[in-house]
Every structure is written in structure tokens, then in C-alpha cells.
Amino acid sequence: MKHRLFWPVATLVMLILINTIARSQFASITVRDGRLYGALIDILRQSAPLMLVSLGMTIVIATRGIDLSVGAVMAVSGAVALTIIDGSTDPNNVGVVMLAVVVALVISLLLGVWNGFLVSLLGIQPIIATLVLMLAGRGVALLITEGFITTVNSTPFEFISTGYLLLPFAFFIWVAAAAVVGLTERRSALGVLTEAVGINPEASRLAGVRSRGIIWSAYAASAVLAGIAGIIYASNIKAADANAAGQFIELYAILAVVLGGTSLMGGKFSLAGTVVGVLIIQTLESTMLFLGVPSAESPVFFAVVVVVVVVIQSPRLHRVARDFVRSARARRAAEPSLDAEVVG
Amino acid sequence: MTSVETAARTTREQTGYFQTFMSRRASILPTLAAVAILILLFVGAEILLRGDFITPRNISSLLLDNAYLLILAVGLTFVIVTGGIDLSVGSVMAFTGIWLAQLLAAGVSLAIALPAVLLAGALVGLLIGVLVQFFDVQPFIASLAGLFLARGLAFVVSLSSIKVETAEVLWLQSTRIQLGDWYITPTGILALLVAFAGAWVMQFTRFGRTTYAIGGNKQAALMGLKVARTTVAVYVISGICGGLAGLVLTAYSGAGYPRNGVGTELDAIAAVVIGGTVLAGGRGYVLGSMVGVFVYGTIKTIISFMGAEQSWTQIIIGALLLVFIVVQRAIVARSDRRSRS
Known about the structure:
The complex is a heterodimer of chains A (about 350) and B (about 350). By secondary structure, chain A is mainly alpha-helical. Chain A has 15 helices and six strands. Chain A has a two-stranded antiparallel ribbon. Chain A has a two-stranded antiparallel sheet with strand order 3-6. A two-stranded antiparallel ribbon of chain A has the order 4-5. Chain A is globular. In chain B, the strands form two sheets. Chain B has a two-stranded antiparallel sheet. Chain B has a single domain, classed as Orthogonal Bundle (ABC transporter involved in vitamin B12 uptake, BtuC).
């Protein structure tokens, strides 16, 4: 009960159990042509874009920031990659696709560096600094695709989201990303320094932590991860849709981070919690699809989840609960010797 | 010699006046800058677009096309002045708009339907305000929940658009009170009324001064101000404005549509900030937000006049937002230094 991952994992297990009871085929996994299929496998595949964005968001939130521009970065990244592939003579060439992906990620990195510049160097509030790119980024993506939805037929590019190596290729992408982020944060001092910056920027600066560079790199990492997410999204629909790509994803990513037990106040963060948080969201989506709720209506449900989670996290409620427990205990202790009790 | 001295003294006095003005009225400077930008935009467009930009028709349609945004920006100004933010405004507008259309289509009279949707907007605002004030939830997150809720409810009401045929609602839009080539619609009048009422409340009532005080200092409760009540109230005001904007937008487009206003919260925030309200709270003017909305609308009109991609609007607004934020930071840092020394 005390472990910070207890509640997220318990929620996920509960969700999977309820689904399995409601429909037996939910947990079943079939093997066809050396590939695994099933509802659970679908969840692992579909969670890739949100997972990548949420991992980046966790790091940014840990530094006491927030990155609203991830959806716009996704749109730009997808638009860049597809425009390059579309403009090439041979869209099926693996080299062309690799080049497109690399260029898209470099541009995403530049966008992240821009966010980091505004936040760490100019000292603008993160919400506002990233709002600028959130507004302008989609405009840029629309300019790149010239206002159209660019579509391509490129087998190597489609492989990114729909390919299989026993398990979906997109699953391996997010596992690799989670491993890389997890190892750099937790197997070096970077994670601790990030938490220090988030808990008290001024104190950590006085203690010699280069908070500016850490904050800057958090935004850069977030944008690169969002860039990868944008490529997976574009690969999945075989098109660059500058308006729909990554819409509302910043909201879902923030929800995933909070569900995973990372406080929005910055500081201590849990990447494993975020992974579980994303899987919870994706399982909920799958559940609602099964229940026949139109996906457009699902925000109502997520609103309720957000409200419940933030109320549970709220310090005031904790205080009230603590006081209640304490007074209950005091009353029980006081009962046998009620006469001897000295008020005051 | 004496003439030189006098000249020197005059300059000194002038800079003295300027500095006094700067220190006392620093918070109005961004708004003045917005007015200057608006004039520049008009003059620039008039020169570049062969002199057919500043026409009564164009200026009249500026108010007509942006009436809904103006109403949203007024409500949002209250929230931002307290140091909060409300991301739900666009979704609340969509929800109230589509629900109004559905109620009217179902034969409910406007006299019942309109209060009902305004109440719905107010309730979303109340939820956000209670979360912010009593559960210490960051305004950003609380209003995010409001955004999700209202957007989802809009789709629960209907997945597709609903046409409005009620005469009273269409009257709001189709009536044009003409004065030569100038015209104004009831929706425009409504938006202006909301703006002036907002400005009056903000400047001349106890409630307005409390709003400024909360943004300037969270410990304002120490001075006996009703912080809790006011904080919740600003979000409720913003929710009601969302409901009014839903009415105006439904009248404007002749239908309710659940996808309306996606991203409108960003446009509204941009307009408020460009109009000179500081996001950290404590400084800002409702009428400044009105100027901000007109700057936004003018940029949009210029871009469509030039036949350029509308996506340039987003890019230019984003850039303008950035410039204003940087300028605001400089002003806030300056006045902080001043008050400390």
C-alpha cells in the first residue's frame, strides 16, 4: 500500500480484470503467421504515440515545467517526414525514409531547443512559453503540407507503426524509448539533479546544479520524443494531417503523468508510473470502445478521472484525512480514561 | 549659457515626467502598445492593400466576426487578472452552443433554453473554481478537466451539427442596424455590452478591486478581502461568458456544432495577453482585451485580404504573443525592482 506504484498498477490490473470478465476474448492472444494478435497487443501498439509524449512530459514536469507544444511538434514532425518522402522519386526506398525520419527529428529537436531557450534563458513561465509554439506550430505544419493532407504509399514508412516482429514494431519503439530515458535518468545523476531542480530551483542552483542546462535538455528531450510520436502517428494513418495530429495529446499526456503518481508541482517523478498511466488510459479507451461509447464522448469520462485524481492528490484533502484519523485515534485512546482527560 | 541650462533642465523635467508616468502607470503600457499595433495594422493594410481596407464595412464586420471571441476574452480577463487561467472557454462555448441548438430544435422556448445553457456554463466554471480554491488544484489542470468535460458533453448532446431555425436567435445575427455604411448586429451590441460591463465591474467595484488584489498578492485575505468567494466567482463569470459566446456563435453560424471552438481558448488567451493583461496576474484591463481581440481579428482579415494561407494567422499571433510576453516580463521585473528598492 505504501509503494508509490501500488495504486496505478492496481487500477490497471482492475481494469484488465473487469474487461476480461465482461468479454472473454479480451485477454486472449492468438498466434498467426508468427505474429501475436489480441486486444492487449492492440493496446500495446496503440499506446506508442501517447507513451513517447508522456515520457518527455514526465521529465519536463519533474523540472516544475509543462510542455503544451507536444501536439504541435507531432504535427510538424509528421508533416516534414511525409513531405520529404512524398517529394522523393522512390518512396519505397529505406534510405529515403530514414533520411525523412532523421530530418523530422532534427527539426523537432530545434523546436524543443526553442522551448528550452524561452523557459530556461528568458525565464518565461513554461505554460506560456510552450503556448507560443502550440499556437504557431500547427500553422507551420499547415504551411509545410500547404494546407492539404499529404498522403503517401511507402512500405518502409508504414512499417514503423503497422510492422510486426512477433510483436508490433511500434511497441518496441516505445519500450526502447522508455529504456533509454529510464537509464539516462536513473543510472546517472541526471534524474536526481532533475528532481532537485524541480523541488527547489534556487537551492539547487546555489548547490552548484546547472539547472539551466537540465531544464533546457528536458524540453529538447520532450520535443524529440514528440517528434517520434508524430512519425508513428503519420505512419499509422499514412498521411500528415496538420490539424488532427496530436490534438489534445498534451492533455492526455499530463493525465498519464498524474495517474502515474508524479506530482504536477515538480520534483520526484516516476517513469514506470507514467508507463502504467498511459496503459491505463489506453485500456480505458479500449473499454469505452467496447461499451459502444463514441470516442468523441470519451472526454467526459476522462474529465471525471482527472477530477477524482486531482482531488485525491490535493493537499487539503490529505490534511483533512490526517486530522480525521488523528482525532479518531485520540478519541479511542482517550475513551478509557475520559475523566482524567485534561482539555487544552 | 542660460539658454543651454534651461534646455537641459527642460529635458530633465520631461524625462522626469516620463519616469513618473512609467512608474505609476507601467501596467497600462502594454495596452497602449496594443492600441499602437492595431493602428499600425490598419494603416499598413490601407497602404499595402491599395487603400480599400479601412472601410466602414470592414470595421463593422470586425466586431461581427469576433463577437464571440470578445465575450470569451472578457471572462478570461477576470480569471487571468487573479493569476489563474481558464482553458475550458472554447469547449464551454461549443457545449452551450450545441445544447442551445438542440433544446430549440426540440421545441423548448428560448426563454427557458437560454437560462439553462448559461447555467450549464456557470456550473462548469463553478467546478473549476471550487477545484482551484478549495482543493488547491492548479488552475491550468482544473480548467483542463473543465475543457474535457464540456467538449465531451458537446458530443454527448450531438455528434453532428444541429440547425437553428428559431427566429429570435437568427434575429440576433441577421438584424443590421445601419448608419450609412456602418452597421452593428445585436450580437455585436451584446459583445460590447459584456465588454463595458466587465470593464466597469473591474475598475469601479469592490469585486473588481478584490480581483486585482488576488492577482497581486495571494495573501490578500489578510486584508479582509473575500478571496475564496471572488476566486470561485471569476471562474463562474468565465463560464457564463462561455455560455453567452455559445449563443452568439450559434446565431452567427446558424447552427450548433460540437467541434466548434477547438483551440479557441488559445486565441482568447492570446488576445487577452496582447491586450496587455499580465499572465502572472494583478495587472490588466478588460478594454485592453477588447483591443487584443481586434488585433487578432484584423490580422485574420488582412491575411484573407492578401489571399495568403490562414495558417499564417496562427504563426503571426504566436510571434506577437511571444513579443508581448517578453515585454511584460521586462515591465514586471522593472516594477518589482522599483518596489523593492
